[in-house]
Design goal:
Helix content of chain B: under 10%
Number of helices of chain B: 0
Strand content of chain A: over 45%
Number of strands of chain B: 11
Shape of chain B: globular
Number of strands of chain A: 11
Oligomer: heterodimer
Radius of gyration of chain B: 14 Å
Structural class of chain B: mainly beta
Number of helices of chain A: 0
Distance between the termini of chain B: 40 Å
Largest sheet of chain A: 7 strands, mixed
Shape of chain A: globular
Helix content of chain A: under 10%
Radius of gyration of chain A: 13 Å
Order of helices and strands of chain B: EEEEEEEEEEE
Structural class of chain A: mainly beta
Amino acid sequence: GAGVSQSPRYKVAKRGQDVALRCDPISGHVSLFWYQQALGQGPEFLTYFQNEAQLDKSGLPSDRFFAERPEGSVSTLKIQRTQQEDSAVYLCASSAIAGGPYEQYFGPGTRLTVT
Amino acid sequence: TQLLEQSPQFLSIQEGENLTVYCNSSSVFSSLQWYRQEPGEGPVLLVTVVTGGEVKKLKRLTFQFGDARKDSSLHITAAQPGDTGLYLCAGGSSTTSGTYKYIFGTGTRLKVLA
């Protein structure tokens, strides 16, 4: 069955460029999460969508980070004017329910390297 | 700020040995999850525990949620090379905005040698 997919898997950006990372959640999943994971560390929460509504964006590190899920399915995380500290793996996860506890299913991540 | 500290940070053991990984916090969580992550992949959920003192077993893995719901442990019996990976705990709780969020621990990297 289709799991969570993310594209691109790898992205190299020059400092100052804008990037867009895509997440295709499991079909029908209500909740969608974005996380940032530094090498060897645990994922850090960035933002949460329930259908198309962005209910929690408390983890976005700066106003250069923007996420959307306009039709309640595919989501895009956009980073403007990338900086070296943005280099990380960006993980997307989806869950069938809103509220918790929930099972979240992760995609393989997008590894972003800012040079 | 809720923090989840895992110990040890790194663990390298021989096949057949037993091990325990700890996940500690000063915060109370309403649920606790354990994940395993392999290189180039996202974390995969192993278990969710929701009751203080709860013990769950999954084949050779035993998970325990502390009585006060602030800590948890993962015990692996007779480790195998296939157990190699990054083990993550995640504590869940409701937020002030009415959503539910998981905070991940610092991770334990396990290597099982054949």
